[in-house]
Amino acid sequence: MGSQKCGGCLSGLLIPLALWSIIVNLLLYFPNGQTSYASSSKLTNYVWYFEGICFSGIMMLMVAVALLVLESDNNCQCCQSENCTKKYMTLLSIIFSGLGISFSGYCLAISALGLVQGPYCRTLNGWEYAFEGTAGRFLTDSSIWIQCLEPAHVVEWNIILFSILIALSGLQVIICLIRIVIQLSKILCGTYSVIIQPGVI
């Protein structure tokens, strides 16, 4: 019963993380609250992968709802025995948790690539990825951020928001991994094992 409550709490945590991922990803489209850059496609290409909106957001919300339903006590009886039903629900929980890892892992990877690549901005040479060839070294050297003339403070904007997306999706990966460990322990440790009553044979 304790592991079931723990699993339900973990699944519930995925919902606010997914909602925050959607919000943070949306903010990436509007540097300094301006919409003109999105409408003219003058944003880093990694924001168009919709990693926080679709994968770490909407898809993860669907996974969280599915896991909460599987953890509830009102599951339909899909087998003749309760033991069989619990095993089936545990297997489904592992599958959905695995999907959650793939969705949030995608967001984490794309966000990391966007962070290392740097923003698409206007420099003295025109619109370009000013720090693409630095292999992410610009992240620790704020003195060169002034190369981006427009949008204003776009380097800080991208670093903060992509870092938040990495943190949010990373937490989702950890939660889903913990859920898989919990569900596997139920199977391997015999929580749902078939008990043969004496005298049945």
TrEMBL record:
**UniProt xrefs under Pfam families:** L6_membrane (PF05805)
Localisation per UniProt entry: Membrane
Highest taxon in the source lineage: Eukaryota
What keywords tag this UniProt record? Membrane, Transmembrane, Transmembrane helix
Please tell me whether the keyword Transmembrane helix is annotated for this protein. Answer: yes
Membrane listed as a keyword:
yes
The topology of this chain with respect to the membrane is: Multi-pass membrane protein
Report the InterPro entries cross-referenced here: L6_membrane
What is the first-listed, main subcellular location in coarse terms? Answer: membrane
TM annotation in the entry: 12-31, 46-70, 91-116, 159-182
Q: Which family does it belong to?
A: Belongs to the L6 tetraspanin family.
**PANTHER family for the chain:** TRANSMEMBRANE 4 L6 FAMILY MEMBER 1-RELATED, TRANSMEMBRANE 4 L6 FAMILY MEMBER 18
Record's protein name:
Transmembrane 4 L6 family member 18
